[in-house]
Write a structure and sequence with these properties.
Blueprint lengths: L4 E2 L4 E6 L5 E7 L9 H11 L16 E3 L3 E2 L2 E2 L4 E6 L21 H8 L16 H18 L2 E9 L2 E2 L21 H13 L5 E8 L13 H10 L4 E6 L10 H4 L3 E2 L2 E2 L7 E2 L2 E2 L4 E7 L9 E4 L5 E4 L14 H23 L14
Antiparallel strand pairs: 1-2, 2-3, 3-7, 4-7, 5-6, 8-9, 8-10, 10-16, 11-16, 12-13, 14-15, 17-18
């Protein structure tokens, strides 16, 4: 009922608030024997953390993760793993002017009406800061899946605002602050600089892929792999759309082209995004998400106060002009958590997964 736990066999319970002393999670169900240190999670946390470029919020959080339990002599014990990330750069005074008002596009209105009170500091539980513990948990899942089954996860930005980002190579993604798969990001930098100066914000499209997938993950009818992927992605702050494979482009496709032909050499395409009938095909999982424009902007907007009276709201503080810029490692983590859950489900019902499907070359 509380809605703070993701997964069942690999269950991640998220805790904390944006401006509280710390945030973190408890992972219950991690298999024993996995070699695990803070460094295994810190790389992905560093990719997500704020303050890494002029194009994101300048809140300067190191996001240093601590392992409090569940690991002995460098290996997981099979017991709950508690991960803690201290908040060190809160500026709660920036939110003093919204104590009695509602920010358009934020959860202020819904939280107050649901619970009867709310934490206005940085959005409290509704803050995108709460994605950091999920990135840490996803890193644990990534490591186990890579070592046990050779499954890997890749992500990139394919659009920011009106700017469509063509795909050149995965090799470019780590080399720029946008996670863009292109060598030259000067146009994206100029676009974001102009957007920030105008006091406005924009959305983004993120693509995430799982490679090395086995065949057979997923449970018909109501625990389909693609259904839980969509559920996980919609749980990420600011996500308003999810596509699997061809997604909405399949509307304009014909059945003669959308259905992925099978040949002795493998599948002829991947419009299905690696899932048929809710079960993995062994092809790459292909997922795209749409992220809305950042709601916290300095441009005055019409709203109401807690008494229902008309007012204007200006959101102060340090905010991302595009929250999608830091969303790539978050989407990777959530996809990893879904795959981890389904690998463990398959192992419980059918034994270890087998990598024996006809393969096609890696996705674009």
């Amino acid at each position: 009922m509380s809605g703070n736990t993701f997964g069942h066999l690999f269950a991640v319970t998220n805790f904390g608030e944006s401006h509280g002393p710390a945030i973190g999670c408890v992972i219950d169900g991690c298999p024993p024997g996995l070699a695990l240190t803070e460094a295994d999670m810190q790389r992905d946390l560093d990719r997500r953390r704020p303050g890494t470029s002029r194009h994101v919020t300048q809140r300067n959080e190191p996001d240093a993760v601590e392992i409090l339990s569940g690991v002995y002599e460098g290996r997981t014990t099979g017991t709950p793993i508690c991960l803690l990330i201290k908040n060190t750069d809160q500026r709660s005074k920036d939110y003093g002017n919204i104590l009695e008002t509602f920010r358009p596009g934020h959860a202020d209105y819904t939280y107050l009406h649901k619970y009867g009170l709310r934490d206005p500091r940085g959005g409290g539980r509704s803050s995108a800061r709460m994605t950091a513990p999920m990135v840490a948990a996803g890193a644990v899942a990534k490591k186990w899946l890579a070592e046990q089954h050779g499954i890997a996860f890749l992500g990139c930005m394919t659009q920011v605002g009106e700017q469509v980002v063509p795909f050149e190579s995965w090799a470019h993604v780590p080399n720029n602050p946008f996670f863009a798969p292109v060598a030259d990001v000067s146009a994206l930098e100029a676009y974001m600089d102009a957007l920030r100066k105008s006091g406005d914000s924009c959305g983004a499209r993120i693509r995430v892929v799982a490679t090395g997938m086995p065949v057979g993950l997923g449970q018909p009818l109501f625990e389909k792999l693609d259904a839980d992927i969509a559920y996980a992605m919609m749980g990420i702050n600011a996500v308003k759309g999810v596509e699997i494979g061809a997604g909405f482009a399949s509307i304009a496709q014909r059945g003669t082209t959308h259905g992925d032909a099978l040949t002795p050499q493998g599948f002829g395409g991947n419009n299905a995004g690696g899932v048929l009938g809710g079960i993995s095909t062994g092809q790459d999982l292909e997922v795209s998400i749409a992220i809305k424009p950042t709601s916290s902007i300095i441009t005055p907007r019409e709203s109401i106060d807690v008494t229902g009276q008309s007012t204007q709201v200006v959101t102060k503080g340090r905010h991302d002009p595009c929250v999608g810029i830091r969303a790539t490692p978050i989407a990777e983590a959530m996809l990893a958590l879904v795959v981890m859950e389904y690998v463990l489900q398959h192992r419980a019902q059918c034994g270890d997964v087998r990598v024996n499907a006809p393969r096609i070359p890696a996705s674009r």
